[in-house]
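QA checklist item 7 of 12: single-chain prediction sanity check.
[x] sequence parsed
[x] length recorded as 310
[x] structure emitted
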Amino acid sequence: AFTTGLGAQQLPLFAQYRNASGLINPASLNSEYFLYEYDLNVNVSYRSQWQSQPETPRTLQVTGEYITNFGGAVELVTGGSLLRDQTGPLGLSGGYLRLGAVLSEDPYYGALVVGFSAGLVQYRFDATEILWFDPNDPDVTQLNESLSRPDLGVGIYYHKRLGGRRGRNNIYLGISLPQILNARYELSVADQSRTAFLDRRRHYYLTGGWYHFFNQDTFMELSTWAKYVDGAPLNIDLNARLHPGRAFWFGLGYNPNTLVHAEAGVNVEGMFGIDSNLQIGFAFDQNFKALGYDVGSSLEFTMAVQFATR
């Protein structure tokens, strides 16, 4: 007799969001660049969200990034991303290219970056994934459709090494709209007797961070990722990492929506050459009574290969 709506973020979440910076902000520079000058970075991550619930989000993303070294007042950040997100009968797959202007003569020490992304996204709905109480009921929809639509994103990003080459602090701040287009798409049932609608909403992201170096290889980083979508509450992640050395790190985090976060990872230098690094990370999120019941934990695995080509 009655229905109600639930507002939520459409784009996927990430625990180790610094590894998905190209998807979050098309103008961002990967933090490994201004830490160790790795200007070529390829990252893969897989996230399984809310383990105790059926048909919950499963997200796979692949990103690549390269920062040019022309030696002028303007450099470029280029890259691409592939994304697949599946939640029960609902699926999303997309491919993106991005390009950014890096306004700096030496981006390693600081830069202002303006960037955009463009891609194609496929939305899917598969009614066969739903377990109907009575599959022969004539009111049960047979909707099994997909449609592809263009997608655009824009962002601005700033980072700075405070105190020059011997500075012990790095800061960065980014603002982005990774999904600009507000649109309503129509999906028709096979016999055209019914219509379903897909609303795509604009997302607003803010990222920021601070790195403090105790020595060349030991440092601490604090970071945040704030997300807002019209109709859903503001969502903020707060995280801290400690790198006792180049070989490994560990971190903790908190989200006011009653979520705690833990992560750890390792770096293996020289795996693919002198100026290369293999990075492997694992993250664990736990919701506790977020919606009046325990929705379970989330797991995320990341792997990146990084090169300094200069």
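[x] summary fact logged: The longest strand covers residues 144-162.
[ ] second reviewer sign-off
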